[in-house]
């Protein structure tokens, strides 16, 4: 046998096992590093969740408070002092709904998209209820007349717009907690 070939074979006897060991070490180290990274990400998610949970709960509370404040019966109680015209009461109630909504816009970050969309729809339903009821009033109608007409329309429709959204938010909170 050629001495050069013999030397190459001897070297290969050491190099091949070393390469196999190196490859196995590389795979093991990669797996350990990947597992470590996954654990760190999981821990970070848990930490973020523990920080966000109180904020989410507070957002749901604020949105339920918002819905209670814009409920037609609450608006009537707050703004119908008996001295307003129907037009003045309509303006006060619609303005209040808009202001309350604008004040709570940032809460959409913490609640689900579906919940936020329901809240937007309900807000529009309340404004539409006030507006449509006002449009059907006589020109000289009082705020008391408008209030009565709004209540009568809700009774006739057997629907209070804000109740369905409040029920949805409560159900969604129960899913989280």
Layout of strands and helices, then pairs:
Blueprint: H1 3-69, H2 72-79, H3 86-103, H4 113-135, H5 143-157, H6 161-176
Helix pairs in contact: 1-6, 2-3, 3-4, 3-5, 4-5, 4-6
From the spread of the alpha carbons, the general shape counts as rod-shaped
Major sheet size, sense and barrel closure: none
Q: N-to-C terminal Cα separation, in Å?
A: 78 Å
Pattern of helices and strands: HHHHHH
Strand content: under 5%
- Mean model confidence by pLDDT: 91
Low-confidence stretches: none
Total DSSP helices:
6
Judged by helices, strands and strand pairing, the structural class is mainly alpha
Task: Tally the beta strands.
Answer: 0
Walkthrough of the structure:
- With 177 residues, this protein is mainly α.
- It has a domain of 123 residues.
- The chain contains 6 helices and no strands.
- The radius of gyration is 33 Å and the shape is rod-shaped.
- The mean pLDDT is 91.
Summarize the structure.
This protein is mainly α and 177 residues long. It has helices at residues 3-69, 72-79, 86-103, 113-135, 143-157, 161-176.
Question: Keyphrases for this structure?
Answer:
single chain, about 180 residues, mainly alpha, 6 helices, about 85% helix
